[in-house]
Amino acid sequence: MRKYLLLLNLVALLPFSQANAQTRYEWVPGSRQARAVPATNSANAAQYAGQPQMQRPFAPHAMQPRWLIQQQYAQQQQMQSQAPQSQAAVPSRQNTVTKTAMPPSKKYIHFTDTVAVDGMQRQFQVHVPPAYDRLKPMPVVLIFHGLHMNGTMMVGATGFNAIADRNNFIAVYGEAVNGRWNDGHTGTGVDDVAYVSALLDKLATVVSVDRRRVYACGISNGGFFSQVLACTLTNKIAAAGVVASTMMSQTETLMQSSKTMPIVFFLGTDDSLLPWADGRTKDIGKLGEVLGLSGIGSIDNGLAQTYGGLLTVPQTINFWTSHNRCSSTTSATQVPDRDPKDGTRVKKEVYGSSGSEVVLYTIEGGGHSWPGCPNLKAISSIGGNISQDIDASALMWDFFKTHSR
Predict the structure, then answer these.
(1) Are 319 and 247 in contact (CB under 8 A)?
(2) Residue 100 or residue 343, greater confidence
(3) pTM here?
(4) Which domains are seen in the chain, by residue range?
């Protein structure tokens, strides 16, 4: 039984962890390109990526005392501050504040700031588009990484910066303590909801924020956490987006309001960490090898749901359609197969309408990945097929922009 509970604690792993002991992959900030970086050259890797490199997380599946978590996080921050950095690539906080207070420029602004929560200085990255005008409040999209990832990786994986530049919203990349968000399954000793709430308050003192149009999205562990925020920060979050995750049954009890919460999902049918309750048994495969859990077999056997609280895809969609009081009928369409070589097809289902929408993009043949992410073999060989038929980030923004509190 302990093996299955351990699997639940690690179910949010995104295949951007080290595929082996020799090589790791990091995103080039501001793009959707990745480069292989030898694990033995971590200091140069941090400089090469243009952002401080996070240490490998400390036992994210373990319940740790708050003092130990704070000590570990302080060590991470110290390592980051000592890493070689380019002043142009990582602006100082002082310069950042000055820049955001200036009239609009022709260049985007990307900076890192911190907020104090529970005795820790926690980081977040902010991307402000070229059209920013401090006299005109802008929408905000909060983006949460998967387990063992960091905010810089999400810059490249999602391509949200370019979408923000084209559509005039502010993109914010959260940074979890020890690489893991408190996703509703078990407590981590860290109040991530308080972190996000404080982040939004701090952000509003630096840039002009449209408080009625703040959105949360994430992948895997970040997708679980985005739903926690959708349940607990109903007075701040206008809509949510979820990639490669279902929901924890414990999260259902966190819902703070009867107000509807528009939400959109992007879920792969061949994602070995998603239980579809369709009678199939998917082997964890290479993801299991990366996790060190290859002996587990499959997450579809029901034990993870029964003893860990992991909801199936139908149960997750049912929770949100019930909460949003959607009709049981759905509108289903097949998305054009823009890339026949990617091994996926996409079906879109829409429940409800206007402020009650629940949208499910089923990635037929899709794995544990962000649709539209570069189709790199280093990722797909571990997590499965990466759909190129759709861009989850662009579709997410199209969904978000129609909703406000």
Answers:
(1) yes
(2) 343
(3) 0.78
(4) 2-400 (3.40.50.1820)
